[in-house]
Amino acid sequence: MIRVILPTQLWRLANIGREVELQLEPPVTYAALLQALEAQYPALRGTIYDPATAQRRPFIRFFAKGEDWSHEPLDAEVPQAVASGEEPLRIVGAMAGG
Amino acid sequence: MSTVRLLAGTRKGAFILTSDTARKKWAIDGPLFAGWEIYHLKGSPADPNRIYASQSSSWFGQVIQRSDDGGRTWAAAGNQFEYTGDPGLHQFYDGTLRPWEFKRVWYLEPAPGDPDSVYAGIEDAALFHSSDGGQTWHELPGLRQVKGNLWQPGAGGMCLHTILLVPTKPRRIYVAISAAGAFRSDDGGETWRPVNQGLKSNFELPDPSAEVGHCVHGLAMHPARPEVLYMQKHWDVMRSDNAGDSWIEVSGNLPSDFGFPIAVHAHVPETVYVVPIKSDSEHYPPEGRLRVYRSRSGGDQWEALTKGLPQRNCFVNVLRSALAVDTLDSCGLYLGTTGGQIYASADSGDHWKAIARNLPPVLSVEVQVLE
């Protein structure tokens, strides 16, 4: 089971908990993970990546195992620890604007 | 007993204020969608408990929210706004060409007869419509075919910020865009014509016959007289008596004819309201005095309405969608400021009272009278 931790604004938007679980068959890419997330929680559609450009939104970051994976292409596979469910993928709204 | 419900969009969420028809005591609920920019909320004339809200953020993009119970509960609706075909290029501030890109929804206008029918004005400027309660959106692309390649952003972006539907002429739609101008459709939005003759924007548009490129800030109409339009342009307050085919200036004795919102009295079509702002570089009232100006003659002669509004050291702005009128017999007015105040008048603007003082900057105010 894939584990995803959402930023406060998004779990509140979807009226769900901070951490969610997704069932995905390998290979697990970022694109597949995000599509599964949107399919399971339609309120999140378009909030993490821009559907017009298919690019990650600039102030969204992806972290796992203490590392920043934000610049991986969306068709890249997520880290093995995320794919196995050992570690969650943390989707973070970057601190900015202050 | 009727209830008055005010829908306020702010930089950090939405607020719903309610009162009885005396409009003296108000309850404030919110923030809804805390932390998100709420550019606009508006209720359906066909079902006042159906409310649409534009929720956006630089982090997470655009969300459309819908309530079916007067704002108590909400659910995310559709947020896919795809331009029809290749949207092409438009002018940028520096004269270069830029591709059309969706940024946010500025304005939502539910249609009179059907709560599932709603229009959205977006940035980069285009008009969209949903016939399924906001689940799916379709562009009315004929609008951008009116010299869209010559449109350019105003300081706030290239936004379609005003949509006026005409209850007695269901096929007629007016829209306004910064900085492109005003446009009219007489066939339900399929084809459009620019309605900007008579506008003068000498510094920005040296050609007095330019059909598009004007920075229109606000547009207002009384539903009983849909041929008469009032406009707050970047500079100048304007009037048209022929559905926008030609315009005359009616700034008259205003202390400044720069400003953003414009509104028409609910029962007296010749009574118009504006909020003068000092200039485009100084976005606050002249002399630090917040004054609503009222004309009872359809323009030119204006009187300052000051009772209950701050008359010293006031340096807030009033944005284009932050002035609303209600439909009670004694017409109410509501004014939101960038300082987070909402002022209300229950007597056509003669007397005002702050009904909220410390909200986030107010982006929009709409009002409903519930039977």
Quickly describe the structure.
Chain A is an alpha+beta fold and 98 residues long.
Class from helix and strand fractions of chain B? mainly beta
What is the number of domains of chain B? 1
CATH architecture of chain B: 7 Propeller
| Order of strands across the main sheet of chain A | 2-1-7-5-6
Rg for CA atoms of chain A: 12 Å
| CATH topology group of chain B | Methylamine Dehydrogenase, Chain H
Low confidence ranges of chain A: none
Helix content of chain B: under 10%
Roughly what fraction of the amino acids of chain A lie in strands? 15-25%
Mean pLDDT of chain B: 96
Total strands of chain B: the figure is 30
Provide the helix percentage of chain A: 10-25%
Q: Order of SSEs of chain B, N→C? A: EEEEEEEEEEEEEEEEEEEEEEEEEEEEEE
* Sequence stretches where pLDDT stays below 50 over 5 or more residues of chain B: none
Greatest interface and its residue counts? A-B, 22 and 17 residues
Shape of chain B: globular
Tell me what you see in this structure:
- The complex is a heterodimer of chains A (98) and B (371).
- With 98 residues, chain A is α+β, with helices and mostly antiparallel strands.
- Helix content of chain A is 22%, strand content 24%.
- In chain A, β5 (60-64) and β6 form a beta hairpin.
- By secondary structure, chain B is mostly beta strands.
- Chain B has one domain (31-326): YVTN repeat-like/Quinoprotein amine dehydrogenase (Methylamine Dehydrogenase, Chain H, 7 Propeller), CATH 2.130.10.
- In chain B, 0% of the residues lie in helices and 41% in strands.
- Chain B is built from no helices and 30 strands.
- The mean pLDDT of chain B is 96.
- At the A-B interface, α1 of A face β6 and β7 of B.
